[in-house]
Design a protein that fits this description.
GO terms for molecular function: adenosylmethionine-8-amino-7-oxononanoate transaminase activity; pyridoxal phosphate binding; taurine-pyruvate aminotransferase activity. By secondary structure, the chain is α/β, with parallel strands linked by helices. It is built from 16 helices and 15 strands. Strand 1 and strand 2 form a beta hairpin.
Length: 446
Amino acid sequence: MTVQPNSIEARDAAYHLHPYSNARKAEAEGSLILEEGEGIYVTDNTGKRYIEGLSGLWSVAVGFGEQRLIDAANAQMQKLPYYHAFAQKSHTPAVELAEKLVQMAPVPMSKVFFTNSGSEGNDTVVKLLWYRANAMGQPQKKKIISRIKGYHGVTVASASLTGLPYNHMSFDLPLPGIMHAGCPHYGGFAQEGESEEQFVARLAQELEDMILAEGPDTIAAFIGEPVMGAGGVIVPPEGYWAAIQAVLKKYDILLIADEVICGFGRTGQMFGSQTMGMEPDVMVLSKQLSSSYMPISAVLVNDRVYQPVADESDRIGTLGHGYTGSGHPVAAAVALENIKIIEERDLVGNAARLSPLFLSRLKDLTANPLVKEMRGIGLIGALELKQQGDAVGVAGGAMAAACMERGLIVRNLGDTVALCPPLIITEEQMVEMFDIYADALASLSF
């Protein structure tokens, strides 16, 4: 990319520090500037149109330019553009959204705490669990077990939960008291000759061994995505979550389901917990909650978690935690309308109906000798390409660039190239998306 002086790209390079980017590379090359979006497509400032094959960041369920969400935001902006939830204040959108989420939850939940991102949601969960442990007279019961390759955000606490090196390196993370159990990626971590059943049994045993080594009375919770997203679209083997939950129940350890990517239809059911047979005590929701039209996230807790927290807030006099934007009325109004659209248009059903085509097109591409493995479920999937030499990400980066050149935005996670299109995608559009993806793969040579 050649950056013209005084162009929007040059100004971006001069002033904007980008997340998840090489700052020096961005200075030198500038960035792709997106100006418009409609349906599954976005358009850059040169007029070039792309299929947004990752729904932005796994999140724009209803597509871009949805007028009902624009209208919902505008109407709420005119009525009550902002109010907070501190000191027993509230407003109708927050009340209605909390009620709706508790009613939708796949297992009984008690209360909803609103935050502004998945990172803030998971950070809040850590604090609530520490608070709860003190309330219950168990100040030692505060350790949290996450997983290698899990992704839970980028705040100090949530980045500690995340099990990816880039989120720890040079940040002095993870925090003490946060541990990482094995990753449920059979293709990447199975031992030679180990069946999937044996792999699952080993991971469960390793988790139990970790709990016993640390002391069961020191472990507050285990956190996991039903299906891992940013770690490489990792679908756990059959029986994995049943085996993990059996260990947690044995030692009275809470289960946190990070539904930030999976929630609201991505796996072909409303929640990934349903698809994977999980029975969480805490659920964290964001992304497709509002299709990312507004920043909002929600922490759902069951009564087992809520009651000690409520008692402690009564003893102290307040729950000393919250955000200026917690349950923002415009964001809550947009989220409510977004959920209505998902339900009315049966977008969860659309994901389930189109999933066989989505997965079969991915599987067809495994015939290419550059492909190491295909993974996916519902409308989230990826090809992992074979590593080229000693450098991780060379093949994946080349594939992402080839896709973008052809009008498809994807995301490479190292050498894994992910697809996660808006839930509104049609069969015809899916064929178009995969034709570009396949052509880009065919163009690669190393």
